[in-house]
Amino acid sequence: MFLRLKKIIMYPLLLLFLSACGQSVGQLNITERISEQEIPVIRWGVKSDTKLFGLYDISEQAIVGFDVDIARALTEIMTDGQGIAEMVEVNSKTRIPLLKNGNIDAIIATMSITDERLKIVHFSDVYFEAGQSLLVPLESDIQGIDTLTDQQTVLAIKGSTSAQNIRDLAPQVNVLEMENYSEGFVALQSGQGDALTTDNAILLGMISLNPDYRLAGDVFVDEPYGIAINKGQEEFLTAVNSALETIKANGTYDEIYHKWFDGLMEEE
Among residues 201, 168, 169, 203, which one has the least CA distance to residue 184? Predict the structure, then answer.
């Protein structure tokens, strides 16, 4: 009991200590740090609960997905093949604080580029074109956002743009926010909501494991994904954009895209 109480007391103090230390760490020039390291390490914030993009694979004991592979490909270019891409687990609530504190160098975690977010972070060029949609059971009467009524509840994820979008575009519905995608889908399965809303690519990942569900209607908000980088790290941002351009030009991006999305996403 004493040990448990001690942990409860010490954990918030530890977070405060790390946060205080991270304020200066977050301001260090990432490009200079990488160039000075004998083995360069770039720390990428990725999700671990998002099928196709970043999901913890028990058999591999690692996070795997599109975002992870893109991060590794960018690291390869940015360090001339000498560096390590370190994956740090984040979610929609923790990703920006971890970036600001210097715990990670960049966020590549299904993060939509928005005007509000651009006030506090930089974004790379778009690396994935997504759009917000609705996930419903196959037998659902919901055919799209226009068919939602004030008797229905839509599940969304805390800290995401999807929650605010659904409130703006369908103000008549009840919105119930969940901590993460796993909780959101379980809530949909248990009948706590009539639909789950987020980006279509994420929902397609859920459908690939749960064929009793479908997308309802068309995409109703464009949600382009960018790689978030801290303010003051313009040199690192330029390097990320240059590497992104390189992997798109040399075919690496297409290889990764087809690895994860063949047969799921419509080609432009």
Answer: 203
Could you please state the CATH topology (level 3) that the domain comprising 26-127+226-261 is classified under.
D-Maltodextrin-Binding Protein; domain 2 (3.40.190)
Question: Percent of the chain having pLDDT more than 70?
Answer: 89
Q: What are phi and psi of 43, to 5 degrees?
A: -100, 115
Q: Helix (H) and strand (E) counts for the chain?
A: 10, 14
**Architecture of the CATH domain 130-223:** 3-Layer(aba) Sandwich (3.40)
Distance CA 109, CA 87 (A): 11
- As a whole number, the mean pLDDT across the chain is 89
| Rounded Cα distance, 221 and 166, in Å | 9
The answer, as to whether pTM is greater than 0.90, is no
Residue 230 structure tokens: 């801290």
Residue 140: partners with Cβ closer than 8 Å, 6 or more residues away: 194, 195, 214, 216
CA separation for the pair 172, 169 (Å, rounded):
9
